[in-house]
Amino acid sequence: xxxxxxxxxxxxxxxxxxxxxxxxxxxxxxxxxxxxxxxxxxxxxxxxxxxxxxxxxxxxxxxxxxxxxxxxxxxxxxxxxxxxxxxxxxxxxxxxxxxxxxxxxxxxxxxxxxxxxxxxxxxxxxxxxxxxxxxxxxxxxxxxxxxxxxxxxxxxxxxxxxxxxxxxxxxxxxxxxxxxxxxxxxxxxxxxxxxxxxxxxxxxxxxxxxxxxxxxxxxxxxxxxxxxxxxxxxxxxxxxxxxxxxxxxxxxxxxxxxxxxxxxxxxxxxxxxxxxxxxxxxxxxxxxxxxxxxxxxxxxxxxxxxxxxxxxxxxxxxxxxxxxxxxxxxxxxxxxxxxxxxxxxxxxxxxxxxxxxxxxxxxxxxxxxxxxxxxx
Amino acid sequence: xxxxxxxxxxxxxxxxxxxxxxxxxxxxxxxxxxxxxxxxxxxxxxxxxxxxxxxxxxxxxxxxxxxxxxxxxxxxxxxxxxxxxxxxxxxxxxxxxxxxxxxxxxxxxxxxxxxxxxxxxxxxxxxxxxxxxxxxxxxxxxxxxxxxxxxxxxxxxxxxxxxxxxxxxxxxxxxxxxxxxxxxxxxxxxxxxxxxxxxxxxxxxxxxxxxxxxxxxxxxxxxxxxxxxxxxxxxxxxxxxxxxxxxxxxxxxxxxxxxxxxxxxxxxxxxxxxxxxxxxxxxxxxxxxxxxxxxxxxxxxxxxxxxxxxxxxxxxxxxxxxxxxxxxxxxxxxxxxxxxxxxxxxxxxxxxxxxxxxxxxxxxxxxxxxxxxxxx
Lengths: 376, 376
Known about the structure:
Number of domains of chain A: 2
Distance between the termini of chain A: 33 Å
Shape of chain A: globular
Oligomer: homodimer
Structural class of chain A: alpha/beta
CATH class of the largest domain in chain A: Alpha Beta
Radius of gyration of chain A: 20 Å
Largest interface: A-B, 54 and 54 residues
Number of helices of chain A: 10
């Protein structure tokens, strides 16, 4: 256990929970009242309350970003490589907040929590929330924590979209924004992958129009397919070649539909693990939040106009082998920031890991983050 | 109808069928006896019987490569842009043979035909056939047609693998080989995409372990998901952006899981059409033929050794925007041919259409094919 709780780990952590007793008007037109957000914090809020940073999670992420819940946990939180004493998001210096988003399935109000109005689980009736809605809900969390402005808001992938939206929605409440492996809007290809994932879940007979919990089942098959597909798009062709190549699991072909290749075995295993921890309705709404994100839309498609009133400094990062959110998507954000005459740094990190690179301990990547954070 | 039956069309065509009364030993160890192959021919076999070319189809293709079956057909055969009088595969000069492969679902012996031994439909008991098995079955078809050697064997994608295997298996029976948008073996990423497609079909409750016909159903959901996924990988990110962008079908977001974006509507439509025409067991075995293809394997992974005894001229083609079978996969074939001191021409065609480019009337592409065919 020594290495778990070493001097660079935040150690054992526990989630907190807050009931936000305010109503939140959502982009879909509905209003949500009295909702719960689960979050973790690492480090200490200083007296001036100006050292708080917010970590926003991606599609299948949650509030548990660093440390361990239990000494026996096999893995730390999902961004433990970045969060801790002397790490890029340094808990000696910063008070770090990481939450499970509204609509999530790890404790925050979402499809598998009770709707107090009806006494029933929300299920598929939970409204589709947007990146903008999340940012508004995170603002209420900041208010609750007594944080007037974030020193930095940070996220990768769908989390990066939230970091971008924060700068747009609350220019006076955010001093720095780090947008990693993200895009200002999804491409048709990205929407298409999400649609295949959704269709695989929705057409699973055990989905029951989203009321699967009532039937005591879960749409395992659909969620598995969605996860397997997602997984392929998070890795690069090259990293899959290096990791699996054409290696056979049992040294021979079976001329049947059981596992022949290692990569098949890996995908099935990943899917199985995911089905056990993630909720199908949440997965669906997260993909819609991705699809719908497009802050330039209300500015005639001109992102630089959407960014006009932002005041934060920006760091934009992309990875060479990421084809789900390629560097060219980050370039669009950077160009728009430059056109809007904002302070922006950009790095393209040489990495072989595909989209998943943003979770990896890549020295150049951690170095760029650390440098930027030293001036936060 | 004028334009359908113009001077560059092969016009109205009818498929033929042959029962091959020989036994074929398959790579899986099983033997298939007395099997039927459905094929079409365009142009005339000359007296010397040396002007025959073989067209090999890809995953979801069939024997109907050119012309129309009926004056009212909306679409011609799948490679009509390449096959006809004065087209690259010129029916004024060549006798063109196009077949539905063994294991197919368009008339050749396959999962949905009767096993004469048992009197039952083969269904999932139809053996998994390989590219090598197909080439052997095509050799028997050549024998039946009295063709001692093909002037050229041509194919795109999985069809290109057959064109490559022909040169290896029957060096004296093929004078030219055209390998388009193919690979000498699939990458882990490609196998992974195929595995997701297979899992979506196999886990569909209406698959019934492949005996769906007995139950009077088809695994529509699974086959739809497989096709939608396949479709995304046949197009380029760029072509999808140009074709659909983020266009909304009804001008607004619905905050639900019905179609929002045009690209979603397109995919669902394509999937629906595919389910009506294609057989799930055939789809499964075709993906396995792709996964298993690896002629270098029995030569310690050295493709140039596998190519050592080939005698044909080769034309290898790839397309700039094809990411499912990228140009680098064609480079591997070309380099191995060069190392083996074979006659090879290679062109990378500038095209925006992704993997599907091989079916498109791209002037540079048709020009390269035409030039090569003039010396066949």
